[in-house]
Every structure is written in C-alpha cells, then in structure tokens.
Amino acid sequence: MAHMQSTKDRRLSYDVDLWTAFEETFSKPRLKYFFDMATLYDSSLSEPDRKELALQLCQWNVELCESLYVPLQYLEVTLRNKISKALADHCKNDHENDHESEHWHLCERWASDDQIVYLIGEANKEAEAEKKYTDKNIFRNALSEEGRAGQNSVHNVIPALTFGFWVTIFRREPEKTILRDRYSIIFSSQYKKDPKFLRSYAFYKDIYPKLDRILDLRNIIAHHGTIFDLELEQAYEEICYVLEALCDTTCTAMKQRSNFTVVRNSKPEAYILNRIKKSISTKNQNRQQ
Where along the chain do its domains lie? Predict the structure, then answer.
C-alpha cells in the first residue's frame, strides 16, 4: 500500500499572488478569520509571516475536513442501513413475505401511523430549512407519490434521505419513537455486550446528543466550514463510539483506514491551539449550547 503524502509537504507558503488569489476565491472574510487566528497566536509576527501561517491554517482545515470524511461516511451509511432494517421490521406485518417487508417506504403505515407522520413532518422541516443550499427537497421527492412510483426499491430511497432524517428519529423521547422496541436491531453490537443498556433512558441520553453533534459537524464539513478550532478529538471519539455500538467490526475497519489522528497532529505550529485556547473554547461553548 502506498504511503499517504505527508501533510507538511502539502502546506501552502505565503506568496503575494497566492494571497490575492485566495482573497478572491476563498473570500476575504474567510481568509481574515485565519489571519486573525494567526495574529492571536503571535501578534509580534510580521504581516507576511502571519499571512503564511493563515494560509497554513487554511490548508490544514481542508485536510482535517478530508480526514473526517472516512469516519463520517462509515457512520452515516451504517446508521441508515441499520435503521432501514428496523423500519422493515416495524412494517413486516403489512406484507406477506420478508422480501416485501424490506420496502418499508411503500408501507401503508407511512400514511396511517401518527408517529411516522410526525417524523416525516420533522424531516420535512429540516428539508425546508436546507432549501437555501439545495436545488430540491430530496426528502419529499423520495417519499411523495411520484417519488414512490419511480423508487420501487428501498435501496434507491435510503441514499436519497438526508443524514438529518435518520438522526431525527432519535430526537423523540424513547417511549414515543417507532424504534423503541428495535434498538437491538440497530445497535446490535451494544446489545450483545449489554442488553440492559438499550432498555433504559440512559441509551437515549447517551446516543442522541452524540448523533446531534456529529450531524452538526457533518453539515459544517459539507459546506466547507472552519473546523480546525473545534474539539475534533472529542468529535472523532463520538463517531467511533456510536459506530462501535452499531457494529464493532465496521468500526475497527474504519479506524484502520482513517488518517484523522495523523492529520490532527500535524498542525502548522506545535502549540498554536494552546495559544489561542480562549477563542477556541468560546466557539465550542457556543456550538454546544
């Protein structure tokens, strides 16, 4: 297997033309944030040196987003497929055989079950809020009558639904969710280790906040936001925690392929995050509120 190119080898060095180009392409406000972080690190640096550090931070931020793509993809794909199996189990009594029950998106309960209607409504609210950066409402298209007619297989519907939809299912109190008796299907690895864990409110209180924060981080990355000054070690640990509860074997495979720790430890300056700790702490507190 070929070795991954060192992060340090890919860093950007300050150049007047490069800075001017980035002000145009990455925008001045975005670049100014990195410049301000460089200034907080050491205000005694000359302007060219601060600009060079700002460019390094900008590139490091891109690499951090890239490094989290692997764990986020493993988690998102695993979670939605596990929940799909639980939904199929929920709808199995409406079909004559297991093969048909797999296609829960065609189940009559989507129209008659108040709990499911509630979840659809919540997901639609999220989709409406996301219209500012999407051309169409993917959720409604997938579950509308027109969408159903063209989506005969649940395997076509699952990828069309947002990660927010799957997380929304956990936003309700445990006794109100349609999956309350099916956590053992979704979190099979955790169920094997500790069945009692899935029967208590501790499960909801433990898993959902993590999923909510992961969704927040995932959306920031999807829109190429700034993440280098967030508590990414904690975020990565939470991704691993939830994924391991879903499937410990899949989690192990993800860890073997993830280079997050390497990228995280290759910060432009050895102690830069410690020197700007107050600013970072404030941003993290605002994010968690």
Answer: 11-288
